[in-house]
Design brief:
32% helix
């Protein structure tokens, strides 16, 4: 195999790997612009990088939120906030992991509610990648419960406000 063929093969492999990661819906960096506002509360999201959540639609449009609580409000009342969208249009939902401050898959996160840690909009669902870290945080910060994505209901969100 010639050096040129090896280089072409390597570059093609890297492009395929990168494309597969995008298609797989890896959270990736959440970087809102200075003009992106939370569609629920209207706050400028870039000011709160430690709490950013985002939803990416299959057409590439992205909604940024100043915390998981507003993201759930949006998801649970999508017709109210974005009548032209459907849940089936969503290709990615990510939240910022509390300790590492990195985006993680919102559907796999563990959320602590009722803690003494507040987000930009007050009481917040605090996301963790690992259950053990959520348990430790809950103990240290007087949390009430640990919830999974599918356990967050409109009633839970109303109870946090």
């Amino acid at each position: 195999m010639s050096l040129q063929t090896l280089i072409v093969f390597t570059v093609a492999s890297m492009i395929c790997l990168a494309a597969s990661l995008v298609i797989a819906g890896t959270p990736g960096p959440a970087k809102p612009s200075r003009t992106d506002k939370c569609p629920v509360c209207g706050m400028f999201v870039y000011k709160y990088p430690d709490f950013i959540a985002r939803i990416v639609f299959s057409d590439g449009n992205t909604r940024y939120f100043d915390g998981a609580k507003d993201m759930f409000k949006y998801l649970l009342a999508l017709r109210k906030y974005d009548p032209s969208r459907r849940l089936s249009d969503i290709s990615l939902v990510s939240v910022t992991e509390y300790y590492r401050l990195t985006p993680i898959d919102a559907g796999k996160a563990f959320y602590v509610i009722g803690s003494d840690v507040y987000g930009p909009m007050g009481k917040e669902l605090i996301p963790f990648e690992k259950k053990s870290e959520a348990e430790e945080f809950m103990s240290d910060h007087k949390g009430r419960a640990i919830l999974r994505y599918e356990e967050v209901t409109p009633g839970i969100v109303r109870g946090i406000d």
